[in-house]
Amino acid sequence: RGKAPEGLPQRLMALLHETGRITRQEAASMLPVRLLTAEQNILALDMCAAPGSKTTQLGERLHPEGVVVANEPVSGRLNMLVSNKSRLGLANIVVTQHDGRHFGRLPPPGFDAVIADVPCTGTATTRKNRDVWWDWTPKEGRKMFRMQVEITARGASLLVPGGHLMYSTCSLDPVENEAVVAEVLRRCPYLELVPLELEGIALHQGLTSWPVLDESGTPVPPQETDGLPFFSQAHLAPNERMAMGIGAKEQEQAIVAQFPLCLRLWHEDN
Q1: DSSP states of 145-204 as a string?
Q2: Which residue range is the domain that position 174 belongs to?
Q3: What is the helix (H) or strand (E) element at residue 243, kind and residue range?
Q4: In degrees rounded to 5, what are phi and psi of residue 166?
Q5: How many domains does the chain fold into?
Q6: At what angle do helices 53-62 and 75-88 cross, to 10 degrees?
Q7: Least trusted range by pLDDT, from 12-16, 24-28, 182-186, 194-198
Q8: What is 72-110 written as a DSSP string?
Q9: Torsions phi, psi for 190 (to 5 deg)
Q10: How far is CA 246 from CA 147, 213, 233, 250, 260, in A?
Q11: Residue range 111-139: average pLDDT?
Q12: Partner of 88 for a Cys bridge, out of 20, 69, 140, 250, CB 3.0 to 4.6 A?
């Protein structure tokens, strides 16, 4: 009878979190692990693991047969990763600190699964970061592109034949998403995208074309991109590259044909 003491729900949620009984995540954050693999007896690598929500989700999913190598290059973020691992009492997570672009190779055969949830501009995090768009300009995504590609391509090189690589961001910018996927497919022609489905959540196909924007957000013709900060021809959509005679036409056609297998998640749908 009566009301609960003031602040009790918040204290209860905090206590449940601190003792490892619950972990709070957005649906979008859960998807990479949920879609990655249904197998348990595997060796998995999380290339950019802190703060550890995906790592611990994967650790719980693979426990007790599987093992997760949780890599985080930034010293200041390692504390959060180790804290989350300890909070859940997961003994099947090994923590490492390396630049993901140069992560050391395992003895053969390698990792069965790799998550590349790479650093990004975070333009899809407006639910928790309402001010993210105030500081965003198109060059921010172009600035991240090279690192995102190099981390992901390195992850691909560490896979066993037939292994699975999950690339994900919390950005809306196609330069950080479809353009990265395209460049990784160019560098790693042994990769292919595979269909993914998940009931109960609305997902959209990846983009097949997108504009290049100047710093005011105005689309720029591909022939007039000279002088754009951090611009690379790899940022162009494959159809634009083919129109300009960039790259092998057959390869670009094969890449753009796979783009519908990329998945996008919109806030308003879920």
Answers
A1: HHHHHHHHHHHHHTEEEEEEEEEE-S---GGGTHHHHHHHHHH-TT--------TTS--E
A2: 26-199
A3: helix 238-243
A4: -110, 115
A5: 1
A6: 40
A7: 24-28
A8: ---HHHHHHHHHHHHHHT-TTEEEE---GGGPPPPSTT-
A9: -80, -5
A10: 22, 19, 8, 11, 22
A11: 94
A12: 20
Helix axes 178-187, 249-258, angle to 10 degrees: 130
Q: Which residues participate in catalysis according to the annotation?
A: 170
Alpha carbons 55 and 50: distance in angstroms, whole number: 8
Residue 194: inside a domain, yes or no?
A: yes
Tell me what pLDDT residue 127 has: 86
Dihedral (Cα; 160, 147, 117, 103), 10-degree rounding = 40
With respect to residue 166, please indicate whether it lies within any of the assigned structural domains: yes
The pLDDT of residue 1 is above 70: no
**CATH at residue 173:** 3.40.50.150
Residue 268, amino acid: E
Asked whether residue 173 is domain-assigned, the answer is yes
**Interval 75-81 mean pLDDT:** 94
Q: How far is residue 111's CA from residue 37's CA, in Å, rounded to a whole number? A: 13
pLDDT in tens, 203-228: 999 999 999 999 999 999 999 999 99
Q: How far apart are CA 51 and CA 33, in angstroms?
A: 15
CA distances from 32 to 76, 105, 147, 253 (A): 24, 23, 20, 27
Amino acid occupying residue 159 = L
| CA-to-CA separations, 228 to 101, 213, 249, in angstroms, rounded | 25, 9, 25
